Amino acid sequence: MSLTSTPWNALKTWRQRLTVPQFTVVTGALVIAVGTVLLASPLCSTDDVGLWQALFTVTSAITVTGLSIIDVSRDLTPLGQLTLAGLIITGGLGLMAITTFLQGFVQGNSGLRQRLDKGRALDEFGVGGIGPTFNSILITGFCVMGIGTVVLYAFGFTDIANPLERFWASLFHCISAYNNAGFGLWGDNLVRYRDNPVVNGVIASMIVVGGIGWRVINDLWTNRARLQGLRRLSLHTRLVLRSTALLIVFGALGLMFTEQFAAGGVIENLQWWQDIQVTLFQSISARTAGFNTVPLSIKTFSDAGLLLLIVLMFIGASPGGTGGGIKTTTFATLMGATRSTLQGREEVVIHRRQIPDTVVLRAVGVVMASAIFVILMALLLGIGPTTSGEPTRTTFNFLEKLFTCMSAFGTVGLDLGVTAQLNRWGQLVLMVGMFVGRLGILLLLSAIYGSRPQPRVGYPREEIYI
Amino acid sequence: MSLTSTPWNALKTWRQRLTVPQFTVVTGALVIAVGTVLLASPLCSTDDVGLWQALFTVTSAITVTGLSIIDVSRDLTPLGQLTLAGLIITGGLGLMAITTFLQGFVQGNSGLRQRLDKGRALDEFGVGGIGPTFNSILITGFCVMGIGTVVLYAFGFTDIANPLERFWASLFHCISAYNNAGFGLWGDNLVRYRDNPVVNGVIASMIVVGGIGWRVINDLWTNRARLQGLRRLSLHTRLVLRSTALLIVFGALGLMFTEQFAAGGVIENLQWWQDIQVTLFQSISARTAGFNTVPLSIKTFSDAGLLLLIVLMFIGASPGGTGGGIKTTTFATLMGATRSTLQGREEVVIHRRQIPDTVVLRAVGVVMASAIFVILMALLLGIGPTTSGEPTRTTFNFLEKLFTCMSAFGTVGLDLGVTAQLNRWGQLVLMVGMFVGRLGILLLLSAIYGSRPQPRVGYPREEIYI
Ligand SMILES: [K+]
Ligand SMILES: [K+]
């Protein structure tokens, strides 16, 4: 297409011809490359952090996962920690903006320029086009994080004497929570604040607000004057709010149930109010944030409890939020389809609205492809070459492997103590999992195949027995 | 409806008003009750077999599962073994007939009589109505089992000197294989014939032919003269044949891959041809039959291999066959839906035919409900009260529990050495799992809710983001 021959113009033309998914993938890879070099430099980190450790940390930060093979407070300089926070905001709010943008389209095949023009022209975001939407996403994010930081500073981290240190801890954890990143400044994550209701409450609120997505926040804000009539809200908003609430409550109840029977487990010898606080926090955190207020390992949780956490990690947060996973609405669609089938219906009905069959189909595709991908990851984790001297423990049981891979794919960051013990092959598998899981299999595939025109052949229908 | 008041007539009227699913459930429960009393009597078994052991064995036989807490050759008399074979045929061919019958209807709500009349009148089975179909199912079954018995007697179990014993072993194993029951006469199942190609071949063929279902066999037989043109076959037949072949091959390749890395595993120190024979047989057998030619335990298989077996057990055989699981066509439908989604299509296309959305919806419902049911089973297995003296080993890891529950739900019968070690609570969970898994969640629910008219309310469509 381009008639000019300078490399710079060629690059510019190439960039303009990228689709949004392709643009996202290319940008992500570029940020990781630049971030790695920056973080590995002595300005940002101690000698313990080589290129490999920096690459893993940057990938984990930009995908807001939180899996880590370094100790953030010890191995990173203040500038390094600031860089990390910047990467987390870029990854969290950046993808929030991109997915919100893509939600406006049914198909994802046109070029970026075209899209941007279309978005501006059609005002399909309801708040005056793309620019105002992006601004609103940023303003919402910084307001929420700001309020959280103030509350944490004043009432939360009161045990930290140094004001600057206390402020940085408050700000960093709010950034990490709102973007569902799960990075902490301390080696034990938030275990030291297990019984602090302010820290629990603020972090959990940040996670939930960041996880439900800008469209839902915007819908709630627009209708704030007449919220008694919930019917004004869109089906999407109601579905996100209800499934988020149900998942939090049932996750906590489930953990209370499974961990009752685990001798030596995390809620042994706790008061009932501690039980509730710990399980609620863990239930909220497992769906993508990845903070923990109790030590996580195969010893401190029962098999059943770990399985429940795996399911919560798989489901993840809501679409257009800062979290990962297959998304709450995908899960709700499949549950709706299941209920419809069991009732003998032939269409999916949720909240008295019929869900289009194409949505159900997409949900099936996302879930199956994601499940297959995670299982392949777990299979691959075990078979890589062992570089001498690297691994201190080479055999993990199947549940530990599956948990770790799900944690990476769902960009959760909960860790049973496996990640740092893996050899480089295993850590590579996790990095690929984080990248694929963050972008989502659909976005990734449309980045690869997006430009190819889809053949539209009609085939005759034929029944099969199932 | 009934104007007469004698209990017998009331019972008869009640029976006639049952739907087919209700009739199936009631008949199944009755056969289990009668069979238990019969098998527990001294005519059929030694003193070691009480009512509980008899109940478990009969449930396992009528659901063609093959999980066992007794030693068939030692604890059952010849009459007991004959009863077991009878129960297996009843369960296998019986449900084959019923599901083949139900496949003729889209909805399952009319009464049994009505159905039978309709079936006779409409000749919807293409071979002259219900009577001829049932006859054909029986004749096909006995022909296949007969041929198998002759081959096994003449070339297979040649190491058994006593002719009567050899005949009974041949007949019993053919019945067990064609009906996908997986019961063996010996404590080690078929481990002693691991390297015998005739035994491997005959049993594997019986399993596959029994598993693909009567409709497929009938379609192949009808078109036998012009099989070069595969397009004459129905979509259902082609789909069943292709997914069966693919699952067998990929299952075997997968096992070869995962077990390569398992030190001390079952294919260590084997020749390449033994590798192929063992993995092929195990891949075929895992999708519902449940025979094993190698010792099965958490020690002899890798975690990844056991996971693969769990997936194969979950998928199971084909609809209208003697096997269980969610069915090959259900799996193929979901894979088709996944492929369509990843390609950006809005309809499911398999073999150049469009699959109706209602079929996709049913597939989603079956898979989700089944997966949730099996996971609940695995959670419940661990928490029952321990009756003193019963269990010799009370803690199993998560993978062992999930494997055992999947084996029961898929009516497979592969056992890691868990079943006999469980307490009665755990064995009860397995029995319920076998019963539900054999009938299928859809059939069971339509037995419960079948008579209730389904409200047909139209709701407006609304999009959600996933
Ligand atoms: K995270
Ligand atoms: K079986």
Overview of the structural elements:
Two copies of one chain form a homodimer. With 466 residues, chain A is mostly helical. Chain A has one domain. Helix content of chain A is 61%, strand content 1%. Chain A has 18 helices and two strands. The first copy, chain A, has a two-stranded antiparallel ribbon with strand order 1-2. In chain A, a hairpin with a 2-residue loop joins strand 1 and strand 2. In chain A, helix 2 packs across helix 3. The longest helix of chain A has 27 residues. The N and C termini of chain A lie far apart (50 Å). The site of one potassium ion has 12 residues of chain A, from loops.
The outline of chain A comes out as: globular
The biggest chain-chain interface is: A-B, 78 and 78 residues
Mean pLDDT of chain A: 82
Instruction: Count the DSSP helices of chain A.
Output: 18
Q: Which cofactor or ligand species appear?
A: potassium ion
End-to-end span of chain A in angstroms?
A: 50 Å
In terms of per-residue confidence, which ranges of chain A show pLDDT below 50 for 5 or more consecutive residues? 106-127, 386-393
The amount of beta strand of chain A, in percent, is under 5%
Tally of distinct domains of chain A: 1
Global structural class of chain A:
mainly alpha
Multimer state: homodimer
Q: Could you spell the SSE succession of chain A in H and E letters?
A: HHHHHHHHHHHHHHEEHHHH
Subcellular location (chains A, B): Cell membrane
Membrane topology (chains A, B): Multi-pass membrane protein
InterPro entries (chains A, B): Cat_transpt
GO molecular function (chains A, B): monoatomic cation transmembrane transporter activity
